[in-house]
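Hi, here's the filled form for the chain we discussed.

Project: internal
Contact: R.S.
Residues: 412
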Amino acid sequence: MSPRRFALFLPVILTAAGTPSNAGAEPLLETTRLELTTGDRAGQPSVAVDPREGFVLTWQERDGDTASLWYAVLDRDGRELRRARIASGASWFVNWADFPSLAVLENGDWVTHYLVESGGSPHAYDIQIVRSTDRGRTWSAPVSPHTDGTPTQHGFVSLTPAGGDHVLVVWLDGRLGAASDDAAHGDHHEEEGPMSLRSTILDREGRRAEERMLDDSTCSCCQTDAVRLGNRTLVAYRDRSPEEIRDIAVLARDAEGEWSAPRTLHADGWRIEACPVNGPALAASRDRFLAVWPTLASGTYEVRYTLGTAEAAGKAHTLAGGDGVLGRVDAAPLRDDFLVSWLDGDSTAARVRLARIDVSGRIVARATIEAPSSVRMFGVPRLASLGDRALLAWAEPRRDGAGSGIAIALVR
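And the returned structure, exactly as it came back:
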């Protein structure tokens, strides 16, 4: 589906990218690295928040042919309170670009997912959703949000509360046609079969409702994201036009469960005949949202962002660009402002860049976290916020050089 210009519930059309005028005047954000012990083959972290307990960090570990999904609860100062294994198995699909996340629902349930190989091709795997009704102490049997039964890709999941015990599941789905190449997932695909964006609602009993195909032509392996904005849910993903323009599209689900048509967030005009494995991120604060995304439309990677409300949308700004910028973005609210992360680096070292952006779109603070790591091992750094602080998580080599572990930092 070729999306129209972004007019979702925002009557003001976004304009060409620009840069806020206060660059160079920002103070530093305070970042504090914290200790976290994991197995020696850990990766794919993600962070959520349970307001009753604190940060909920998830990650995966490998042990021989077995993979497992773990969580740890950390208080608002980053001190670990408890941890446990969620699930494990011998046929999981574990990949730096397509990673589990966790959502805390309005009734307090925790919902997370992992990916299980379904055979047929290197890219054939299914989504398995599990739920805890006691804050991670016990977990349900897995449920799949899709029922097509095809040995194709089902992944790049976004989980969002949908009222009470309901969770909205959005994912990329390959049932319309399998990928036709044998490249390793997470690399550029030389040829791609058709991918679609789909959604469903799951309740506490695992029953599905409102199964939808939201877009019948999307980029094949870019992360998706979703947030609640008032009584709407906003979803962002990388679209794919017949002309191979792969800009970011947005659509919304209203309080009655009706979906808008996809709209282009900003007309970057990035034409690329392969998936860049580099999706958008969203954050919501009260009645405002921030969207951040990478693009190579200008010839070098740039990270762009925009802010919007239910009444208006602002300009698209360039946050970073030039040699070394890689994207792999995330975003979270930080009090009334927003915190954005992105990655830059090369084959020997990686850096997480952070910027605090106020409600007018100005960059008001920055920080950099450096680590000796290949950018692939770094994966996609993940953020979540709790009041005036945020927790950042990423993968990096262990200090003894044996395998990888999860690194975390508290951002104030």
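Let me know if anything looks off before we file it.
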